[in-house]
Amino acid sequence: MSKAPIAIIGTGIAGLSAAQALHTAGQAVQLFDKSRRCGGRTASKQIESGSFDLGAQYFTARDRRFREALQHWQEEGWAAPWSPNLYLSRAGQLEPSTDEQARWVGTPQMASIARALLGDLPVTFSCRITEAFRGEELWTLVDADGASHGPFSHVIVATPAPQASALLAAAPKLAAVAASVAMEPTWAVALGFATPLPTQVEGCFVQDDALDWLARERSKPGRNGHLDTWVLHATNSWSRQHLDLSKEAVSEQLLGAFAELIDCVVPAPEFTLAHRWLYARPAQPHEWGALADAGLGLYACGDWCLSGRVEGAWLSGQEAARRLLEHL
Ligand SMILES: Cc1cc2nc3c(=O)[nH]c(=O)nc-3n(C[C@H](O)[C@H](O)[C@H](O)COP(=O)(O)OP(=O)(O)OC[C@H]3O[C@@H](n4cnc5c(N)ncnc54)[C@H](O)[C@@H]3O)c2cc1C
Ligand SMILES: NC(=O)C1=CC=CN([C@@H]2O[C@H](COP(=O)(O)OP(=O)(O)OC[C@H]3O[C@@H](n4cnc5c(N)ncnc54)[C@H](O)[C@@H]3O)[C@@H](O)[C@H]2O)C1
């Protein structure tokens, strides 16, 4: 009988990073995600007039191993540098914000990286895993419809921490660590304008009550939508305070804040979309790398194990795979 595959719950950057490392090492993997597509918080939304990045806006690469992976992504055309006309808005004043930081984006959209990393690996979408339990030797997963999946030799949980703790119940110490991680929400609003706004701004860090960040989609490489689409992110604190506000009210308030901030007249948008990220980022960075109960064969990874960024998620996935492989 062939060896049971390794189950990976979550197809964000962390889960995909672990999957790739294990696949490269000759291990069979089976991925699961509750969503209809991969990428998690590196999501891009496809609409008739183009696409835009709704979660992660760009990423930086500080770790040598991640820089090497990024070089490969660039060579393959999955990622490219993004050097926007960057501004800072403080106390209502908009000023250019030049820095030396290199930033990258997925091409032609942020979600392209996850799609490329997934490649042909076996995956089950629209499948929310609710339980992972171990028999004498092997693991079984149960989904929200009560269906069982398995058997698996090991399980890697690659979801945000609040969703990971229940899936780690077989290892109470790991479950407790995951349960101790607070994650902050972010409201995101996309606005599409029929006529390009007459401004030089392409990205802006905002120090404000409501807004935290705004980006102009068409300034990113490979984007060719016909609307001038902007993505606005609210601060974590504003998002927390307005967690249950309707999407319409959130769009209206953030559009108002944007119109006050930007140095031009803002017409009514052709298109508006609001999305609430309940678990956008860990409240604090950690240095766990990944969590492991090697005896049980249960592992956890995700941005919350490191820095709350794309780079942290990728490194955490690598670490989970490394720890699993060293115990085979
Ligand atoms: C609004 C916003 C802006 C951001 N901006 C940036 C930025 O500019 N730069 C940067 O570096 N980072 C940014 N980030 C953070 C970055 O997106 C994350 O750090 C990274 O994508 C996390 O990857 P992950 O794989 O750890 O988790 P996720 O991407 O959250 O992936 C987890 C996956 O698990 C799935 N899942 C969850 N529970 C279950 C379950 N029970 N069963 C099956 N599947 C499940 C989810 O559907 C998801 O696909 C931003 C995040 C947000 C939300
Ligand atoms: N909104 C959310 O939920 C987010 C979740 C997770 C990350 N988010 C943002 O992602 C970037 C990623 O950080 P980074 O990779 O360290 O990038 P950085 O560009 O170096 O930013 C770090 C930090 O510094 C501030 N900053 C950077 N450059 C400037 C500048 N030229 N002018 C003013 N301020 C600058 C910025 O506020 C960053 O927090 C990061 O933006 C997260 O906020 C969002």
Topology:
Blueprint: E1 6-9, H1 13-24, E2 29-32, E3 44-47, E4 50-53, H2 64-76, E5 79-81, E6 86-90, E7 93-96, E8 104-106, H3 111-118, E9 123-124, E10 129-134, E11 139-143, E12 148-152, E13 154-157, H4 161-167, H5 172-179, E14 183-193, E15 203-207, E16 211-216, E17 228-234, H6 236-241, H7 247-261, E18 271-282, E19 291-293, E20 298-300, H8 310-326
Parallel strand pairs: 1-2, 1-13, 2-9, 6-15, 13-20
Antiparallel strand pairs: 3-4, 5-8, 6-7, 10-11, 11-12, 14-17, 14-18, 15-16, 16-17, 19-20
Helix pairs in contact: 1-3, 1-8, 4-5
Catalytic activity: 1,2-dihydro-beta-NAD + O2 + H(+) = H2O2 + NAD(+); 1,2-dihydro-beta-NADP + O2 + H(+) = H2O2 + NADP(+); 1,6-dihydro-beta-NADP + O2 + H(+) = H2O2 + NADP(+); 1,6-dihydro-beta-NAD + O2 + H(+) = H2O2 + NAD(+)
GO molecular function: flavin adenine dinucleotide binding; NAD binding; NADP binding; oxidoreductase activity, acting on NAD(P)H, oxygen as acceptor
Binding site for substrate: 58-62, 186, 309
CATH class wording of the largest domain: Alpha Beta
CATH topology of the largest domain: Polyamine Oxidase, Chain A, domain 2
**Shape assignment:** elongated
Structural class: alpha/beta
**Mean pLDDT metric:** 97
Q: Percent of residues in helical segments?
A: 25-40%
Second-tier CATH architecture of the largest domain: Alpha-Beta Complex
- List the quaternary state of the chains: single chain
Q: From N to C, what is the helix and strand string?
A: EHEEEHEEEEHEEEEEHHEEEEHHEEEH
Helix count? 8
The biggest beta sheet, please? Answer: 7 strands, mixed
Strands ordered across the widest β-sheet: 7-6-15-16-17-14-18
Low-confidence stretches: none
Beta-strand residue fraction = 25-35%
Distance between the termini: 18 Å
Binding site for substrate: 58-62, 186, 309
EC number: 1.6.3.5
Domain Amine oxidase: 115-325
Protein name: Renalase
